[in-house]
């Protein structure tokens, strides 16, 4: 099979996930990764990376990659590193299942990534992660769940437990599918400088404009004051003073509990105007 000219669209990813989830018999979360693998005819085996300095080449590769998919006696098998958190094991298993499900991925030898042109390798990995997230937390389920929820950390934690995913995936799905304007980012204190820097910015499709990545937050900035005040209650801040462009509007800002001098996750949202995402397909 050739390589398609375009990466899989969101709808394409959603359709692949919907079919597998339906075939596995799930209509609500959590979606069990073992059941999905079983339906696909894939075995799962856990492995432990030995601490020996001289590792065989395969284990050297595994100590960096956490999981892999290969044929064992002609049957597909996912090997997954035993010592990861539950959320990461699930993401890894679904990621490998995704390589198995996406038709054009089957032609590659994942154990020899150096043989895959870098451009295709990053596309391959990106598609597998997108489908893995869709299998863990299908967008139509997340979207429905979020209809009655507030955009705060309690909702992200609730989502994390309900779908049995890592906090990072929960945050990603939340920002993507909250039916209103919401954004998240991390504030990182700079040791040499009396300031913070913005990183890992994620915005919902309805967030009009947003703070640039790597923006320097100085002491006069409202985010700097919120970070050091360590309040965990949402506070209202005027958009222009935050660096958000567009019409004047105020935003609610909530900062995750953090230790001073360490990075802190931030949520930012405008008063919700709940809109249905255009990428959402009906459940088949
Ligand atoms: Zn992969």
Question: How would you describe the overall organization of this protein?
Answer:
- The chain is an alpha+beta fold and 284 residues long.
- Helices cover 38% and strands 19% of the residues.
- It folds into two domains: 10-136, Arc Repressor Mutant, subunit A (Orthogonal Bundle), CATH 1.10.10; 141-269, 2-Layer Sandwich (Beta-Lactamase).
- A six-stranded antiparallel beta sheet has the order 6-5-4-9-8-7. Strands 1-3-2 form a three-stranded mixed beta sheet, sandwiched between helices.
- It has ten helices and nine strands.
- The site of zinc ion (ZN) has 5 residues, from helix 4 and helix 5.
Features:
38% helix, 284 residues, 2 domains, six-stranded antiparallel sheet, Beta-Lactamase, three-stranded mixed sheet, alpha+beta, binds zinc ion, Arc Repressor Mutant, subunit A, single chain
| CATH evolutionary superfamily of the largest domain | irre protein
Q: Which fold does the CATH topology of the largest domain refer to?
A: Beta-Lactamase
Number of domains: 2
Number of E strands? 9
Q: What ions, cofactors and ligands are bound?
A: zinc ion
Task: Write the element-wise H/E pattern from the N-terminal end onward.
Answer: HHEHEEHHHHHEEEHEHEE
Radius of gyration: 21 Å
Short description:
With 284 residues, this protein is an alpha+beta fold.
Helix and strand arrangement:
Blueprint: H1 10-23, H2 33-39, E1 43-47, H3 57-65, E2 67-72, E3 75-81, H4 86-101, H5 118-136, H6 139-146, H7 153-163, H8 167-177, E4 182-190, E5 195-203, E6 216-217, H9 222-229, E7 235-238, H10 239-242, E8 250-255, E9 264-269
Parallel strand pairs: 1-3
Antiparallel strand pairs: 2-3, 4-5, 4-9, 5-6, 7-8, 8-9
The structure holds zinc ion (ZN).
């Amino acid at each position: 099979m050739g390589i398609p000219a375009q990466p899989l669209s969101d709808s394409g990813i959603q359709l692949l996930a919907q079919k597998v989830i339906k075939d596995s018999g799930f209509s609500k979360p959590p979606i069990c990764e073992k059941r999905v693998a079983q339906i696909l005819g894939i075995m799962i085996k856990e492995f432990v990376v030995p601490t020996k300095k001289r590792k065989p080449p395969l284990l050297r590769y595994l100590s960096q990659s956490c999981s892999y998919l290969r044929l064992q006696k002609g049957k597909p098998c996912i090997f997954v590193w035993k010592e990861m958190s539950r959320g990461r094991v699930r993401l890894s298993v679904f990621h490998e299942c995704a390589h198995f499900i996406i038709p054009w991925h089957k032609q590659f030898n994942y154990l020899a990534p150096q043989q895959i042109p870098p451009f295709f390798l990053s596309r391959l990995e990106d598609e597998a992660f997108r489908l893995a997230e869709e299998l863990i937390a299908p967008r139509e389920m997340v979207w429905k769940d979020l209809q009655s929820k507030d955009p705060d950390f309690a909702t992200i934690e609730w989502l994390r437990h309900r779908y049995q995913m890592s906090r990072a995936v929960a945050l990603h799905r939340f920002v993507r599918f909250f039916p209103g304007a919401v954004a998240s980012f991390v504030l990182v204190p700079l040791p040499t400088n009396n300031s913070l820097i913005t990183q890992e910015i994620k915005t919902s499709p309805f967030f009009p404009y947003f703070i640039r990545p790597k923006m320097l937050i100085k002491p006069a900035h409202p985010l700097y004051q919120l970070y050091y005040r360590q309040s965990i209650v949402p506070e209202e801040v005027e958009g222009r003073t935050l660096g958000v462009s567009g019409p004047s509007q105020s935003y609610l800002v909530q900062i995750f509990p953090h230790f001073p001098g360490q990075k802190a996750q931030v949520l930012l949202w405008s008063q919700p105007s709940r809109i249905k995402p255009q990428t959402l397909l009906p459940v088949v």
